[in-house]
Amino acid sequence: MLLFLRKTLVFSLAVIVGGCASLAASNPNALWQIVSEQCVPPEQSTGKPGVCTDVNLQKRFAILKDIVGDTQYLLIPTDRVTGIESPLILQPDAPDYWVDAWNARHYVDERAKIQLQADQLGLEINSQFRRSQQQLHIHIDCMREDIVAALAPYHDQVLYQWHPATLDKQRYRVMRVPNLEGENNPFRVVARDHPDSAQMSEQTILVTGAGRTTKDGWLIVNSALNIEDGSGTAEPLLDHECKLAKHG
């Protein structure tokens, strides 16, 4: 009976993960429960990540396959971090979640059965008001083909300068950076002119390659709820069906 209940809990938690945009009312702590109860303990005791795809105890993150879409994964901290508004993500010793999420892109490649180009892969985090879960998570998935094309003119823009962009009929700004570490951490880049938690809570961030490879860096794409025609979620710029993989 105990084994049955345990398996039922695992299944229920896994189901709750799917549809991050629609299950807040069900259990806004589902991701944290999965990571803290079903991934970290087995990694600590057996060296296996449980229901997660990967758990990195040293770097303090887990990778979990979302049941929405065939190729979508989530990076989730193994620390309790609520989301983009948390001051913890801006601390000097904060993990490089964006770097770790980018390095996990091979899971998307494996599911898509192709090697995605850097500008075909996107990382995204929603604002506090456009997410279902009270645990920070970065979406890792394919980009929409039309958004890849729309961002192409920004691949050779001057580093460290914001440029306006209209994507999916909403207002964004785009900055090219040479890496995702230190002061180029996308959280820190956006927080420079949104310095407090209340302002950060309205932000959404997407990161993708500035070209087919990352020799020219990455693009940080940012919008917010508090601007006209702004967006609190850049997730629609991703393609959870990964049509570009089907098109070769």
Provide keyphrases for this structure.
single chain, 248 residues, alpha+beta, HIT family, subunit A, 8 helices, 9 strands, 20% strand, globular, lipid biosynthesis, HIT-like_sf
Question: Per CATH, what is the topology?
Answer: HIT family, subunit A
Q: Which spans of ≥5 residues are poorly predicted at pLDDT below 50?
A: 1-25
Order of helices and strands: HHEEEHHEEHEEHHEEH
Name the CATH architecture: 2-Layer Sandwich
Number of domains: 1
Can you count the beta strands?
A: 9
Radius of gyration: 17 Å
> Briefly, what CATH class?
Alpha Beta
* Main beta sheet strand tally, sense and closure: 9 strands, antiparallel
Shape: globular
Spatial arrangement of strands, main beta sheet:
1-2-3-5-4-8-9-7-6
What's the average pLDDT? 91
What percent of residues adopt helix (DSSP H or I)?
25-40%
Question: How much of the polypeptide forms β-strand, as a percent range?
Answer: 15-25%
Derived from helix and strand composition plus strand pairing, the structural class reads alpha+beta
Distance between the termini: 48 Å
Instruction: Say which CATH homologous superfamily is assigned.
Output: HIT family -  CDH-like
State the helix count: 8
Structure description:
- With 248 residues, the chain is an alpha+beta fold.
- The protein has a single domain (2-246), classed as HIT family -  CDH-like (HIT family, subunit A).
- 28% of the residues lie in helices and 20% in strands.
- It is built from eight helices and nine strands.
- Strands 1-2-3-5-4-8-9-7-6 form a nine-stranded antiparallel β-sheet, with helices on both faces.
- Strand 2 and strand 3 (73-77) form a beta hairpin.
- Helix 1 (2-17) packs across helix 2 (30-46).
